[in-house]
Amino acid sequence: MSDIIENLGDEVQRGEIEKVKELVKTAVDQGLAPMEILENGLRPAMEEIGRKFGSLEIFLPEMMNAADAMSAGVEILKPYLASEKSEAQKGLIILGTVQGDVHDIGKNIVGVMLGSLGYKIVDLGYDVPVLTFVDRVIELEPDIVGMSALMTSTMVHMPRVINALKERDLRKKVKVIVGGAPVLPEWALEIEADGYGENAAEAINVVKELLQ
Amino acid sequence: MIRFWDILERAEKGKIVPVKEWDRGIGKAAAQVVSDYDLKYEPSDPVPADDALADRMFEAGVELFEKTGIYCMDTGKVLEFTKDEIMEALDAAPDRVIYGSGNDIVETPHREVEDPRDPIVNFSAVGTPVTEELFVPICQSYAQEPMADTFSGPLITTYRGMAVASGSPVELEAGIWNVIKLREAARWAGRPKIPIHNFMSIAERTDATIAAARPELGVLPGDGLFVAAVAELKVDYERLKKVAFLIHSPYVIGGLYGPLMGGYGGGPAATAALLVAHHILGILAFRAPRHNAFPVHIHHVCNTSRDMLWLVSLAGQALARNTHLVTFANAFIAAGPCTETAIWELAAHSVTSTVSGWHLNPCAVARNRQPLHCSGMEPRIHAEVGHVTARKGITRKEAGKIVKALLDRYEKQIPNAPIGKSFNECYDPVSVRPKDEYIRLWEDCKETLRELGLDFGLIA
User: Fold this and answer.
1) If you average pLDDT over residues B23-52, what whole number do you get?
2) Would the CB atoms of A199 and B231 count as touching at under 8 Å?
3) What is the ipTM, given to two decimal places?
4) Which terminus of chain B is less hemmed in, N or C, by CB atoms within 10 Å?
5) Do B165 and A153 touch (CB under 8 A)?
């Protein structure tokens, strides 16, 4: 691996936006393939950040700084990547915290990690009404809908979204994943979700499997 | 002096900040005070006995709140406060709170670090999902415990076959059912007027709370209700509506704060400062005379890991030494009922909290999500350990040794902690008595705790 790719990974992990931009530009100028810069420099760094966050060697602020640095690098690469594999090709995911629930840290972490891995994320925010999920599925035709809840009294909206998708004949067109503190794998099965993540790292793996 | 009307006005007239900017700003502000006040988590010292460190933590928490203020999610505005306003509110906050009425009064004063007085213990099933059929026996198992000064219930997810969905009419009906059944459980426990410190656990919405808060349904003057902040340092109109209602009611407001360690704030030191800051939010925005802290580990969803105990201890000491607030520590444990792991976790959290100036609010069991995995035994264990710790006059240094010995027994099991037994498996649901297996397990574990310095003869 070239020095510049290695340095790039280090600077992403440190969350150094300006240095990442500079290194990406230099790498492009030196003739490195944009996909190589992305796949060997930026993404492995974010995967390492995800691992470190999983073991709490770092905390959310550091992870978000790294994600910002990664995004800054990707922005520079975008024009060069246009002819190669685009974000949309990797997968479009809409995320939201279900109706009645204003807790969105978990959902945000999943969004940051997936976004940094190249998936296109549309974040619907928190307290998302059942029919808003459905409307956005019709509008955006995502590959995956991800729902999060922190409260037992709000996670019961998850099957309502799934049923609403079924009633509109959309269920087979989109995968559904669920997560959040009160959500158990048995519940995910019971409501016929396609995937469940105990934590953000698991959610990433589930997305990767579903979109293979 | 900041009034509730000032809060409502500032929520409308404050500076607009996008929520993502707010979330990111919390980490930066917390990191700054952690650095400025030289606050460093020390894994070898889960119950620090350093007064200067505790005082710096308090100053850091106040400064953090002064830098950030409170975020109102409905208006997208920041409620800002001056240092003078913060200190005035702290000075004016009540130094005791009274639950109940008549012969069932529970007076809860401010506790000090290493306070030899018994902690007040709120027996709480927190958020464990249970069935309609077992709701009353489970609540009874809490209310009947001799050390239960007050109690509260778990929640049901279906009512009469329909999902209790937040915001639905079913939620409102279930909320009314909730308070009727809580008082019924108190009657079956032989304590018909025992205070209920959080009378609504099933319904989230304010309309359901107001509908249920009637004496004829069993909610008595001197009962209480928790109002929870949203991590980190956020409120919304749903919460402020609850406060508006409660201010005009005979019910005790409890501020509820659960900063996430590893989340927007950062690590243990930053999250401890955030927990202190949340107490100021509780005084100002929630008008709360008592406070309930449940910081949790972002991955393990408990507060019994080594870093979490340090956080609980230091934030408790900071508040106990520098304010006269009435504060409760809410145990969140990873393991489930009738397991050794759970008992060690409960003991470690109780010893840590009791010497650090907290009253006790046990507990969320099995990461607070396994259906029917809760019983009155877990708070009994927590309460007995807390009473012994106080009566024996255990110091922070002694507590540190006990806690380290306990951590050796369970901390590696936290990521895969056993979920234990359900209520039906560890209690006889007809007599509502713990089964012999659970009693024996507790008695066996007490032997180990005795060897570590906890003299259970003091509560015999």
Assistant:
1) 97
2) no
3) 0.86
4) C
5) yes
Set of chain B residues whose Cβ sits within 8 Å of the Cβ of A56: 262, 267, 297-299
Query: Are both A111 and A129 inside the same structural domain?
Result: yes
Is there a contact between A153 and B164 if contact means CB atoms under 8 Å apart? yes
Preceding peptide of B112 cis, ω within 30°:
no
For residue A77, give Cα distances in angstroms to A42, A45, A119, B205. Answer: 11, 16, 15, 47
Q: Which CATH number fits domain B96-128+227-459: 3.30.360.20, 3.20.20.460, 3.40.50.620, 3.30.70.1250?
A: 3.20.20.460
Tell me if A59 and B262 make a contact (CB, 8 A cut-off): yes
- For the whole model, what pTM was predicted? 0.94
Check CB contact of B205 with chain A, cutoff 8 Å: yes
Whole-number pLDDT of residue B173: 97
Decide if B369 and A184 are in contact by the 8 Å CB cutoff: yes
Handedness of CA B81, B359, B139, B106 (dihedral sign): negative
Whose tokens are 């979490």? That residue is: B308
A159 neighbourhood in chain B, CB within 8 Å: 163
Q: What is the pLDDT of residues B396-422, one digit of tens each?
A: 999 999 999 999 999 999 999 999 999
The CA–CA distances, whole Å, from A189 to A130, A182, A183, A197, B91 equal: 19, 14, 11, 12, 52
pLDDT tens, residue by residue, A46-70: 889 988 998 899 999 999 899 889 9
